[in-house]
Amino acid sequence: MYEILGLIDRFGLVIVFVGTFFEGEVFAIIGGFLAYRGSQSLQVVMSLAFTGSFLGDLAVFLFARYFSNHRWVQRWIRKPKFAKALRLVDRFHAYFVIVNRYVYGLRMPGLIALGLSSITVPRFLVLNFIGAGLWAAIFTSIGYVFGYSISSVFAQLEAVEHAAIYILIGIAVILALYLAWRQFGPMLRGTPRNERDGGMVGHVGPVRDDETLPR
Question: Which top-level group of life is the source organism from (predicted)?
Answer without folding.
Answer: Bacteria
